């Protein structure tokens, strides 16, 4: 009990400790990026190594994604009400780190349970740390991006390190460096100063009222459908890339190189995205990114060659990086200040939650029955439909701004 009380203590962030908080947060994001990059891309390979089919992998991942969508609001409520940020971040690292060892059981239902429990706790990490990072950045007069970018950099190095590690060791031992990095991240959490005065961001309108206003906006609905069609294809990279790369003759070390390239392109792309949006607008930026997705999947479909696939990962920043920044800022614009928080919640439920669940199930099944080619064909077609829907949003928006 004394340990939990110590962990849950919330020292107040002052102007004198603001810079220390920013430096510690950068280290925290870097370490959590390393852990995610080390295990995340290779988790499906670990499942496959332990006897799961691609279809079963998709089911496991989809259940976890579903749970993360449902559980995130509960974690947010706990943090806002009880101010237990440090305790929740510690659990978000400790529980998945310890449970990672048990993925080696090889039992389907056991993996479902372990992955689901890990996801329940891990789901709290991003919204909890992000909400504090935004506040700390303001107090230190820094940008949130200067903190968060360390996570992308860590993720890139983690993916590369994971591939290198698996070139020398069996995949059933990857839980060891994963646990060590989680412990290192927990030590950083324990020295982070936290702000008791952080206010709950719930918007000025009740959630149900805000949702009703959004779902009666046809442009917003078409936008969400376009985002869903595009982003469900990303599971082909996030979940099945290593498996599909091995299927065309790639090695673990080369897969790590590809993941490194993809993650590194995200950092400059997300910085550049704001300039592109200011120049051509939200809708055109979304269309540009959707087109990058089509090209990305199309090349991997017609040129299933390891070094071609590695090279095409430079499009990750232009596709995901541009699309995500433009979509989030578009939601902020179209919803208005009175339901902005609700708009972002609905967007994330579709963009991350629903698209992730459907994408994991669909691409897992397609990979099972037709290999990488069928999966990437489906991704190309889905991205095309998404681009068409987003083009419709662009045309309607243009007509409203310039009526005849």
TrEMBL record:
Taxonomic classification: Bacteria, Bacillati, Bacillota, Bacilli, Bacillales
Sorted alphabetically, the keyword list is: Membrane, Transmembrane, Transmembrane helix, Transport
One protein family per Pfam? MFS_1_like
What PROSITE patterns does the entry give?
A: MFS (PS50850)
Localization terms from the record: Cell membrane
Report the principal subcellular site: membrane
Keyword NAD assigned:
no
Q: Which residues form the Major facilitator superfamily (MFS) profile domain?
A: 21-398
Topology relative to the membrane: Multi-pass membrane protein
> Under what name is this protein listed?
MFS transporter
